[in-house]
Amino acid sequence: MKIKELFEDRSVDLVSEFLQSISPKELRQYSIRDNCGPAALHMRDWAKQQGIELNRFGGYFIADNVVYDKADFTKEMKREFIKQGLDFNNPTARKQFIESNPEYNEEWKKIPHYWLQDKQGNNYDPTGYIQFIKTGLSTDLNKDRYLGKPA
Fold first, then answer.
1. For the whole model, what pTM was predicted?
2. What is the rounded CA–CA span in Å between residue 110 and residue 16?
3. Residues 6+ positions from 10 with CB-CB distance below 8 Å
4. Would you state the pLDDT for residue 77?
5. DSSP letter assigned to residue 9
6. Cβ pair 40, 56 in contact under 8 A
7. Domain boundaries, the chain
8. Cα–Cα distance, 149 to 38 (Å, whole number)
9. Rounded to an integer, what distance in angstroms lies between the CA atom of residue 70 and that of residue 72?
C-alpha cells in the first residue's frame, strides 16, 4: 500500500481521528517505538467510546530495513560485535553488522509491535506511520507486514 492509498483507507481516517483526540504529550510518548502497546490500548478504549469494537493484536511488524539500535542487540550479538573490534556506539557499524550477517539480516526486520484489528481483519495502527514510515523503516503499512495474534 503506497502512502496515497494509505490515506484513502478508512482505517487511516479512524487512526487520524484518534491521534487528533490525544494531547501533544501523548503523541510524543506514542512516537517512541516501545510505546505501541499503550497506544493500541488507548485507541481501543477511545474507539469503544465511539461505538467501534477493535481487538488488540501483538506480534511483529516486518520492516524494509533492519533495526540496529543498541537495545535491539541481544547480549550474544553485542559480544560478537565487540569481539570483531567494532565500535558499539557507532550506529553505522551496528547497521552494517546486522546487514552483513545473514543469520540476523531478515530476523532483524521483525519489530515487536502492537496494533488493533476489527472483525473484518482491517488493521488500525495508531503508531505505525510515526514509528515505521516516518523513520524510514518502511514505505507502507501493508497488511502483510503484520504477523501476530490477539493480545
1. 0.82
2. 25
3. 122
4. 87
5. S
6. yes
7. 3-150
8. 17
9. 5
Q: Is 99 helix (H, G, I), strand (E, B) or coil?
A: helix
Single out the residue of 150, 144, 145, 98 nearest to residue 119, CA to CA. 150
| Position 125 pLDDT exceeds 80 | yes
DSSP class per residue in 38-90: HHHHHHHHHHHHTT---EEEEEEEE-SS----GGGS-HHHHHHHHHTT--TT-
Q: What is the 3-state secondary structure (H, E, C) of 107-129?
A: HHHEEEEEEEECCCCCEECCCHH
Q: Among all chains, which residue has been given the C-alpha cell 469494537? A: 53
pLDDT of residue 2: 44
How many Å from the N-terminal Cα to the C-terminal Cα in the chain?
A: 25
pLDDT at 123: 95
Cell triple for residue 132?
Answer: 515505521
pLDDT per residue over 70-109, tens digit each?
A: 888 888 889 999 999 999 999 999 999 998 888 888 888 9
In this structure, the number of other CB atoms found within 10 A of the CB of residue 58 comes to 15
